[in-house]
Structure formats: C-alpha cells, structure tokens
From TrEMBL:
Pfam families: fn3. Gene3D superfamilies: Immunoglobulins. Residues 81-177 form the Fibronectin type-III domain. Residues 165-178 have a biased composition (Gly residues). Keywords: Membrane, Signal, Transmembrane, Transmembrane helix. Residues 162-183 are annotated as: Disordered. Residues 1-23 form the signal peptide. This is LRRN4 C-terminal-like protein. The chain crosses the membrane at residues 194-218. It comes from Hipposideros armiger (Great Himalayan leaf-nosed bat). It comes from the Eukaryota.
Length: 239
C-alpha cells in the first residue's frame, strides 16, 4: 500500500518538469516578421584619399582597412599609360640653391614618378624614380639668376605620361596648359650677389670718373689751352 502513494508522487513530479506550451498570439508573429526583415546596408562614403597629399596611401588599401565601405575616385585602365600629373606649388630657396616641387596624382594607376629639369633650351635631365605615394621632391644645385623648366612624369606598366609639346617628347611649349605637368622655375639672385654687384658697379663708376678727370687735365696740357688769367687788382686810392 505504501508503494502506490510513492508512484503518484513520482508521476506528479515528472509532469511538473515538462515545459508548458504557451499559445502564440498574433503579436508574436508580428515581432518575428519584423526581426526577419533584412536591414538596408549603410550608405558608402568617400575614402580619405587626396591626390595631392604627400605619402598618400593607395585608395585600394584604404578600402581594405576601413571598417565601413568607402568609395575610391575613378581610375583609367591599367593597360593604358597614366594621364599627366598636375604640377602644383614650387617653393624656391635662393640662399640654398634648391626648390621644393609639389604635384597631384592623375586619375590613373601609377607605379612611380620622376622629375625632369632643364636649364633654358638645354635637354632636360631625368631625376631618380620616386614611389607612387610621393607628392613632393626637392631639387638641389640650382644656379642663382637662372630660369629652369621642371616637369613631373608618371609611369606604370603600360608606359609613361606625355609632356606638352610635339608628340610629348620634351618640355617645349610649357606655357600651354595652366595646370599641366610642366612649369617654369626662376631662381632669383642671392642677396650677397646683389651687394657684390652693387659694390662692383660703384667701383667701376668711380674709376671711370677718375680716368675722365685725368684724361681731361692731360688733354689740356698737350693742347696748350691758355689758362684764364685773373684781372689784376686795382690799387686802392688813399684819401
């Protein structure tokens, strides 16, 4: 007889452990539908990319490193030579005989840059290759009082950018496009040179003046020009 109450107690405990099923209300279906609705992606923004910034990281690397999708500026095909870069500000330091040249990258894939520097009508000299992230370079050994032509060239696997002129073979006609790859660079004379020039001109004028005076007196003596005689002083009459 004692086993029957124990059996009932075990059955009661077993049914109490079974989870109860709650009927779903219409509100529950609405919440599930809202949760399953796909969310629209965040709008893409422009990548922090500046064509004229020195040591600018390539935009593709910025896209991979950015936690949010960003857009890069359009580029031409890598199978074509790059477009000409745009020459920017040129800061001349006359005391040191140097200049700092800035430029902006073209809308093309670029592997490297280099500068061309020519003095007057002479053939331009090609500088060392520069990394594609560089937007600034220094020119040294410039002569004071001399005008130069400086050009920036971009290159990739398909070729190099063109220069203004016939067939893009040289920097002739650099006065063409306002925002082109070439520009004229005039190095002013050094201040010390101006002082020395002024002293030299003053010394030359002084020597010429002295020479003219000496020549004038010698010429008078050779030609025997009569000297002006001063009139004799009249005697003073005494009263």
């Amino acid at each position: 007889m004692l086993g029957f109450p124990c059996l009932l107690w075990l059955l009661a405990v077993t049914f109490s452990l079974v989870p109860r099923v709650h009927p779903l209300a219409p509100e529950d279906f609405g919440e599930e539908e809202e949760d399953e609705t796909p969310r629209s992606p965040l709008p893409a923004v422009l990548c922090d990319y500046d064509r004229c910034r020195h040591l600018q990281v390539p935009c593709r690397e910025l896209q991979r490193a950015s936690p949010r999708a960003c857009l890069c500026p359009g580029l031409s095909s890598p199978l074509q030579p790059p477009s000409p870069p745009r020459l920017g500000e040129v800061h001349v330091v006359a005391e040191e005989g140097s200049a700092i040249v800035h430029w902006c990258a073209p809308s093309s894939p670029v592997h490297q840059y280099w500068l061309l520097l020519g003095e007057g009508s002479e053939a331009p000299q090609k500088g060392p290759p520069l990394n594609s992230t560089i937007r600034r370079a220094e020119l040294k050994g410039l002569k004071p009082g001399v005008a130069y032509v400086v050009c920036v060239v971009a290159a990739n696997a398909a070729g190099e950018s063109s220069l203004p002129g016939a067939g893009g073979e040289g920097p002739e006609g650099t006065g063409g496009p306002t925002f082109g790859p070439c520009g004229r660079l005039a190095v002013p004379p050094r201040p010390r040179s101006l002082v020395h020039a002024a002293v030299g001109v003053g010394t030359a004028l002084a020597l010429l003046s002295c020479g003219a005076l000496v020549w004038h007196f010698c010429l008078r003596q050779r030609c025997g020009c009569p000297r002006r005689t001063q009139p004799a002083a009249r005697p003073v009459e005494r009263l």
